[in-house]
Amino acid sequence: MRAQHAKKHSPWQTVLITGASSGIGEALAYALAVPNRQIALVARRKERLEKVAQAIRDRGGEPLVLACDVGDPRAVQEAASRLRQTLGTIDIAFLNAGIGSRGIAQNLTSAEAEQVMRVNYLGVVYWLDQLLPDMQKHNRGTIVVTSSLAAYRALPGCGTYCAAKSAVSALIESYQIDLLATNVHLVLVTPYFVETEMTGFDPYRSRRVWMSAADAAQRILQGVEAGKHHIAFPWHFRCFMTGLSLLPLPLYRMFWRLVRRGG
Ligand SMILES: NC(=O)c1ccc[n+]([C@@H]2O[C@H](COP(=O)([O-])OP(=O)(O)OC[C@H]3O[C@@H](n4cnc5c(N)ncnc54)[C@H](OP(=O)(O)O)[C@@H]3O)[C@@H](O)[C@H]2O)c1
Q1: Sorting pLDDT into bands at 50, 70 and 90, what band is 23?
Q2: Which residue of 105, 148, 173, 236 shows the fewest CB atoms closer than 10 Å?
Q3: How far is the CA of 169 from the centre of ligand 1 (A)?
Q4: Which pLDDT band, with edges at 50, 70 and 90, does 261 fall under?
Q5: 2: pLDDT strictly greater than 80
Q6: For a pocket test of ligand 1, which of 41, 47, 96, 240 has the largest count of ligand atoms closer than 8 A to its C-beta?
Q7: What is the pLDDT of residues 154-172, one digit of tens each?
Q8: Nearest protein Cα to ligand 1, atom 36
Q9: Is 76 helix (H, G, I), strand (E, B) or coil?
Q10: Mean pLDDT, residues 182-203 taken together
Q11: How far lies 84's CA from each of 19, 55, 105, in Å?
Q12: Where is 38: in which H helix or E strand?
């Protein structure tokens, strides 16, 4: 069953990547750049996208730069319409654009919560809205959506981020079941500890815990090629977050009380 699913992923002639101007999205773009493959690159920073596009051209690929704010439904509609005119039907899309957010309950602002939800959750919804009808019409296509291991259990200090990523994970898990009888595949990616602009770069970080964006991109592509529906890494933090997700609320609160007392 898994091998059958994997076969349907290949070959990818037309690819879309959101959040392609840096980090995991940029690394995915380089990993996917092969001669004659058309790769549409979405992010807000056009000059950064142009650099990624040039690197794709150098590898023989054919880039299309679509500068767009994924949190603006009209901008997504316009970018998707250009995408359809230029590339036609998309074989595989990576909905990866996202922003981080740190903040505790005491200083939460609704403006920040709205922005995180708009980019991290609605940014996925707006693109699904544009891509799914076409894929369902042709009964083929794959959409790989980046959530986070932070969606497994709400962590302190990043409530708005956890809320938005939990929404993404719930949406994709639900849609995966809705689409079970079709050849349209949704893949959920839940990473953590990837060195990017969002998490910062620190030479003193443990190499055993942190990984590069290029390694993260490889894991994602290997998982998709293998026909996985959920790709989660690194394994140790996945185990930790799974453990936390199974704790009853009183134990979960006790865990953080102990951690805070220890600190
Ligand atoms: N790094 C990690 O450890 C980690 C862990 C869990 C989940 N993730 C998720 O992985 C994804 C990629 O993040 P990253 O770590 O690679 O961080 P990153 O280097 O900061 O990349 C984020 C990408 O999203 C784009 N983006 C942000 N806001 C956007 C908007 N409104 N419209 C369009 N594009 C937008 C950025 O481009 P512009 O600024 O040019 O628009 C950039 O290309 C995110 O969804 C993030 O939540 C990362």
Answers
A1: very high
A2: 105
A3: 16
A4: confident
A5: no
A6: 96
A7: 999 999 999 999 999 999 9
A8: 19
A9: helix
A10: 95
A11: 19, 23, 42
A12: strand 38-43
Q: For domain 2-262, give the fold.
A: Rossmann fold (3.40.50)
Which residue ranges have their beta carbon within 6 Å of ligand 1?
Answer: 18-25, 43-45, 48, 69-71, 96-99, 119, 146, 148, 191-194, 196-199, 213
Reading phi first (left if > 0) and then psi (alpha if -120 to 50, else beta), residue 30 is in alpha
The one catalytic residue among 121, 161, 204, 252: 161
Which residue has a Cα nearest atom 44 of ligand 1?
A: 98
Residue type, 110: S
User: Is the model's pLDDT at 79 over the cut of 60?
Assistant: yes
Q: Measure the CA–CA gap between 41 and 26, rounded to whole angstroms.
A: 9
pLDDT number for residue 10: 55
Q: What is the pTM of this model?
A: 0.95
* 161 is annotated as an active-site residue: yes
Give residue 234's identity as a one-letter amino acid code: P
